[in-house]
Amino acid sequence: MSQSSQPNPNRYVNDLKRLKAQRSELQHFFARLFPFFIAIIFLVIVGVYGSLSLKVADENLIMLVAAAIIGGYMALNIGANDVANNMGPAVGGRVLTVLTAVLIAAICESAGAILAGGDVVKTVAKGIIQPGEGLTLGDFRDLMLSALFAAALWVNLATYLNAPVSTTHSIVGGVMGAGIAAAGFGLVNWPTMAKIAASWVISPVFGGIIAATILLFIQVKVFNTGERRKAAKTWVPVLIGLMAGAFAAYMALKGLKKIWKPSTVEIIVYSCIAFLICWLASIPYISKLSDKLSDRKKDINSLFHLPLIIGVALLSFAHGANDVANAIGPLAAIVSTFSQASVEAKVAIPMWVLLIGAAGLALGLLLFGPKLINTVGQKITRLNAPRSYCVALASAITVLIATTLGLPVSSTHIAIGAIFGVGFLREIIENPAKRRLKPGHKLNATAQDAFDNINARLSRKLVRRQFVYSIAAAWVITVPASATLAAFLFFALQYLI
Fold it and tell me: Which of the residues 134, 142, 166, 383 could staple to 92 if both were Cys, CB 3.0 to 4.6 A apart?
């Protein structure tokens, strides 16, 4: 037998390797499809659930089912995109794993949507446009359906491109664009739009200021002291109490309003009680932990793990209450037209509508949420536990204030603004340029000067400017993009119907 006719063992080995690689690729392909398969099942269930939850005339059944499915689709996208705003700081600070953070968010988002989402839903559903006699019920339904679908498509595209955009921007732009397409510019409630637009500017600035202030307080009172452990024993319990007081105030104002309506004095009293209880209860806990630590910053940072986790839970609850409006606001508006002869200024929010929004938020962040977590948590500026705590608490406080005022503000703007605030404060207090420049020397004077002052020349930009610019671009384009898409969809519905 010739040598060429003998079996080549390497050939069989290579064939096995190729077969194994193909099998691995196939498994990876089906693993990537699995979340989409679950999402499709969810949307089918939502459509059936919506058709069974409300009895409507046969000619309105298709509209009801379509509105429920698209509302669920929007909720999925909100969970997929906005989860980064809540979970990014905790994961970026290496306090929570992605899985643990997403599970905490799923529970808290759902609770916030169900307990405290009602008032903000009304603002999104009816506050952006002012329907008059020139808008029929059919046109109003098409308007809201187009706005909801356009916003969902835009957020889905942004998530695919790994861009954290504002879901509030998306739905507001969609309602505005479809409203203009339906009845012209006069249909838009421009004073309300101006108020909402102002909140887009105010909320990130306010979030950044609060986060920077809290971080500066921690830096001065804890890390810049001679005895960090002793200072942490004093001030970390105070910060835990502050979070507890804020959460108690929010629950009194919004979370329990359907069964309990306290006065302003009662809210203040209960908030103070919550602050005192949690402050005093956390003192022995922090003291016990501190006794096992050194004075190194890395060790002291671990004391902020529990406050950060509480802050993430608080932020997720507030986000569920605030951003559920973006998913079910137009859906609630459409549902209201099936029982009313005209478009009213106020609508009742059925529980089944809230449940669709809550379930969609939770499922969206479980299936697709981790995609943007690294973007928010790591690409803007470097975070640790104290910085992440400041971002989470500042974001939560700002969202709570916005929810109390009934403003559909962007949690994306607030969270990113808080991260910017932390990063820019770090540049101010940690920038080595001014500290390391030798007296009497001028940059570029001599080669020796250039070598001596290299730290001044390579002064760190602790906030990545390129990412700042890309976020700003995404914010600018969201409203016109969703508005244009909503107008196109409205005209398409008019043509098809």
Answer: 383
